[in-house]
Amino acid sequence: MSIASCKYRGRFAPSPSGPLHFGSLVAAMGSYLDARHNQGEWLVRIEDLDPPREQPGAAKRILSTLEAFGFEWDGEILYQSRPDRADAYRKALHELSEQGSTYLCSCSRKEVNEAGKMGAEGPIYPGTCRKKPSVQQSARTIRIRTMACNVGFHDLIFGYVKQNIFAETGDFIIRRADGLFAYQLAVVVDDAFQKITRVVRGSDLLLSTPRQIWLQQLLGLPTPVYAHLPLVRDSLGRKLSKQSQAQPISDRRPLPALLAAWHFLNQVSPENEPENLKIFWKWAIEKWDITRISTDMIV
User: Fold this and answer.
1) Where are the domains of the chain?
2) Which segments within 93-247 are labelled E, that is strand?
3) Containing H/E element for 168?
4) CA neighbor of 53 nearest in space, from 101, 17, 102
5) Residue 61's closest CA among 229, 277, 242, 279?
6) H/E run at residue 44
């Protein structure tokens, strides 16, 4: 199926490790407005692959906040913890293994840190178990084989991005030591399952995209169009995140927060402040212009 033949379909995929903060509101707004401006569908996916990191009730609070802010999604919400999704990830893993594209790895995180070089997103796996295959009993993870070639794509905001995955990341994990499927595999399988044609998300995932495209190519899956939004940062230049104790957005006064997110994304200012959420969203959908976003915006 050609991705170009599909109707526009975007998605917002939060992790239930805590409530939404301003940075995640910016990501939700960017993906939502881009979909609606282009007369497309907007889907919500809850990426609850990692039970140890989840906060009880976080998914419910995220959905409640989205509703309070006037977001309206299409279709049912997809939870990655559903049994059928685990079946789909296992099927993809089996297909990759049958191709000879995977191998077992018994390296601990400490061993990788000590043996590998540092890359932009952490230690570069040195290929220890690729060079000397690990025995089944001691294997901890499953890694995907990469090649020393550039994987590139055109980002709607950052322009052309390329990465030599083998040199800059190394063979990466697709099933963790605890048996859980890794994000990179799950997101690729679910984007194809939901027929996602455009992914608008934070630029913290920009360098993950070549790895996802690599998996898409190995599995024969379509590649969406990507747009990565500049990150909201604090006064010290750190990305706003749950780990940095970013304050959750309040459901009580959604309109000021929406306007702040709108201005962060460098969109045209309204002549008059919208009176309510319905008026704001109608106006914002019409006025949305992704080309106004620059790559160096911080708050």
Assistant:
1) 3-292
2) 102-105, 117-119, 122-124, 141-144, 150-155, 159-164, 173-175, 198-202, 225-229
3) helix 165-168
4) 17
5) 242
6) strand 41-46
Q: What is the mean pLDDT of the chain?
A: 90
Over residues 174-207, the pLDDT tens digits come to 999 999 999 999 999 999 999 999 999 999 999 9
Q: How deeply is 278 buried, as exposed, middle or buried, from its count of CB atoms within 10 A (0-12, 13-18, 19+)? A: exposed
* Distance from the Cα of residue 274 to its chain's centroid: 31
C-alpha–C-alpha distance, residues 88 and 80, integer Å: 10
Give the chain's length: 299
User: What percent of the chain stands above pLDDT 90?
Assistant: 73
Summarize pLDDT for 49-95 with one digit per residue, the tens.
Answer: 988 888 889 999 999 999 999 999 999 999 999 999 999 999 999 99
pTM of structure: 0.91
Token code pair at residue 11:
């998605």
**Letter string b/e over residues 71-92, b meaning 16 or more CB atoms within 10 A of that residue's CB:** bebeeeebebeeeebeebbeeb
236: burial class by Cβ within 10 Å (0-12, 13-18, 19+)?
A: exposed
- 3-292 fold: Rossmann fold (3.40.50)
